[in-house]
Write a structure and sequence with these properties.
The complex is a heterodimer of chains A (about 350) and B (about 350). Helices cover about 35% and strands about 20% of the residues of chain A. Chain A is of the alpha/beta class. The two termini of chain A are about 40 Å apart. In chain B, helix 8 crosses helix 10. Chain B folds into 2 domains: about 45 residues, no CATH class; about 250 residues, MetI-like fold, CATH 1.10.3720. In chain B, about 75% of the residues lie in helices and about 0% in strands.
Chain lengths: ~350, ~350
């Protein structure tokens, strides 16, 4: 049994809009699993269900199990017991995720005291250890300080310490480096990797930045338009990419441009729950799209061991030679900027 | 840091107080009428030698700015002049009527904060639901129903129709006030250990205090609701929920704390309108406070008393704003740096 099992999860809003459709993923103990995709791909919504959070007014079908217990059918009290203790979360922007009017010590200890029943003194001693663990300088005086005293990188370290307080089995890291300077990012990523090795916790790492993903993740899920596009080990997905969307994300990396390759933006606009194209949601932006892509939602197929992609065309894999690939591309000329 | 913050706020409050005194002094000086002759009888006012002597005695022959410093000096010695109507020093009048108003205003404010903020929290958690709609009516009513009308209705319903509360005064007829310590009968009767007197003082206090608190309840309810709603959308609230904290901890410690600064700002201004409301409420409930004193002084053109009340109210107002500033500093550590 995996630590986190998301099984055929669909999330709908009132009015029929679909946020997430038939998504499945697993996270094993001690693993760092990435979820990548643009805004609106459903990656954050999916990850939040592992804490039992659903967007306001949304309904979910399927199952989200932590250690076998379904988070979607839990009562509020049961959810409270799991949140912060078994599953913890670090948010994108440390400027807004820490309470500006509560001191660091209070924010680090309040859930420790609730979940582990620690006395104030014990909890504060533990909080100082946690700040040491995330390498925050001068942890003891930091406890009585307020968040505005710290830089973005320092605040994110504090937020990570907060998430680690009760020794969670699973950490949800939602774009935790996106709001930080590149130099600070590296420090946070190192920290995350060290903590994973020291504590054995699993991490769900959410980002749209595949370069960051390549550094930290063991396995990768790529989402688009609320559906799973491709998943597999990090090298399967990034080195023998099979889905045109994953390929497009890689080509759009500025790191490639630094090496002299052309920087290729993805044409058109990302699909959102409000505007999701028919068939394969990526088809209006896809140079390989054929007629059937417009009509049929592609099935997620296993291409090689543990490597799955949802593309009917599969332009980088199944084709016998590059010439035929070129024929397909030429046979379906279109302006990809025109969304259907 | 907090100490420096308090010191700087105290300094600016003192400057503000001097400013208010200056304005009230200039306004009094601008009024038609001769301060020297108004102090004398009719015959003495006709004698230029006596008038000149009075002018010299009170410094009225000095230039205006010198007079201002003489006036400041008098104020510092507690000399606010003598009331024309009561023939007593204005200061002793204020000491007599002030505590009665303070008692009324303080109880009204406490009630308003508890009820207004409490209902505001409830409304924000049930936003746009049935409870919220009902509370919107309560808030609108509190803010827009004239206080004198509310007072009359309250007297009619709770004193005339049902004898639940007495309709006027601070104690039952025939009861002797407790020996003065604070001048607030509820506190003084408790200090004296006289529970019958305390019960009487409380039952007289409830109705006027409730009426007086109505506009403040309306205002606080509305502001608490909107401020809570704004904070509820913050990521730090989601973060608190993600830590598995109990719901009441999330609401009271995280959301309410974040929502409190605008509420306290409103509290400061609402207190000013509450002071204005005391004039009407005290008149209707026969409450012998500053409001009633101001009303009678104004209708008798008792200048020293009017100026005295003006200064008194101004100083109360400055003090309340000072307290509001301190509360900001306590609640939001980021403000302490300013």
């Amino acid at each position: 049994m995996s630590l986190l099992e998301v099984d055929n999860l669909s999330i709908h809003l009132r009015g029929g809009r679909t946020l997430v459709e038939s998504v499945s993923l697993t996270v094993n103990a001690g693993e760092i699993v990435g979820i990548a995709g643009e805004s609106g791909s459903g990656k954050t919504v999916t990850a939040m269900t592992s804490l039992g959070f659903l967007p306001a007014g949304a309904t979910a079908t399927g199952e989200v199990r932590i250690d076998g217990a379904d988070m979607l059918s839990m009562r509020p009290k049961q959810l409270q017991a799991v949140r912060g203790s078994d599953v913890a979360m670090v948010f994108q922007d440390p400027m807004t995720s820490l309470h500006p009017m509560l001191n660091i010590g209070t924010q680090l200890t309040e859930h420790l005291r609730v979940h582990q029943g620690l006395k104030r003194k014990q909890a504060w001693a533990r909080a100082a250890e946690l700040l040491e663990l995330v390498r925050l300088p001068d942890p003891h005086s930091a406890l009585s300080a307020f968040p505005h005293r710290f830089s973005g990188g320092m605040r994110q370290r504090i937020a990570i310490a907060m998430a680690l307080a009760c020794g969670p089995k699973l950490l949800i890291a939602d774009e935790i480096t996106t709001a930080l300077d590149v130099t600070v990012q590296a420090g946070i990523l190192d920290l995350l990797d060290r903590l994973r090795r020291e504590t054995g916790m699993a991490v769900v790492f959410i980002t749209h930045d595949l370069a960051v993903m390549n550094v930290v993740a063991d396995r990768l899920y790529v989402m688009y338009g609320g559906r799973m596009a491709e998943n597999g080990s990090i090298s399967q997905v990034l080195n023998s990419t099979r889905h045109p969307y994953t390929r497009a994300l890689i080509d759009a990396l500025p790191e490639g441009a630094a090496l002299g390759k052309a920087l290729v933006p993805i044409p058109g606009e990302a699909a959102t729950p409000d505007r999701r194209p028919s068939g394969c949601a990526f088809h209006p932006r896809c140079v390989f799209a054929v007629d059937s892509c417009r009509a049929d939602v592609p099935r997620l197929r296993e291409l090689e061991d543990g490597h799955l992609a949802a593309c009917a065309v599969d332009p980088f894999g199944a084709l016998p030679d590059r010439a035929q690939l070129l024929d397909i591309a030429l046979a379906t000329p279109k302006d990809p900027r025109v969304a259907s | 840091m907090l100490f420096r913050f308090i010191l700087s706020r105290l300094g600016s409050a003192a400057i503000l107080a001097v400013g208010i005194i200056l304005v009230s002094f200039v306004l009094t000086a601008l009024l038609p009428g001769d301060a020297a002759t108004s102090r004398l009888g009719e015959r003495a006012a006709g004698n230029p030698e006596i008038v000149a002597a009075v002018r010299a005695r009170y410094g009225l022959d000095q230039p205006l700015y010198v007079q201002f410093f003489i006036y400041l000096g008098n104020l510092l010695r507690g000399d606010l002049g003598t009331s024309i109507r009561t023939q007593k020093p204005v200061l002793s009048d204020l000491a007599q009527f002030g505590p009665a108003s303070a008692e009324l205003a303080i109880v009204a404010t406490i009630v308003a904060v508890i009820v207004g903020v409490g209902l505001g929290i409830v409304a924000s958690l049930r936003a746009n639901g049935l409870v919220d709609q009902a509370l919107r009516v309560v808030s609108l009513g509190g803010v827009s129903i004239p206080i004198f009308w509310l007072a009359l209705i309250a007297v009619y319903v709770f004193s005339t129709l049902n004898r639940v509360f007495p309709s006027s005064g601070r104690l039952n007829p025939g009861q002797t006030p407790p020996s003065q310590v604070t001048g607030m009968y509820t506190l003084d009767s408790l200090l004296a250990g006289d529970l019958t007197l305390f019960a009487s003082a409380i039952s007289h206090l409830i109705l006027p205090a409730l009426v007086l608190s109505a506009p403040m309840i309306g205002l606080l309810l509305r502001f608490t609701r909107s401020s809570m709603l704004e904070v509820l959308g913050n990521e730090y609230v989601r973060a608190a929920e993600a830590k598995g904290l109990p719901r009441h901890t999330v609401i009271l410690r995280h959301v309410l704390r974040g929502a409190l600064v605008p509420v306290i700002t409103v509290l400061g201004t609402a207190f000013a309108s509450l002071l204005a409301g005391t004039v009407l409420v005290e008149q209707i409930f026969g409450w012998p406070g500053i409001g009633a004193y101001a009303f009678r002084s104004a209708s008798n053109l008792d200048l020293p008393a009017i100026v005295g009340v003006t200064l008194f109210v101004a100083i109360v107002y400055i003090t309340v704003n000072l307290i509001v500033d301190f509360l900001y500093g306590i609640i939001d550590p980021r403000i302490r740096r300013a």
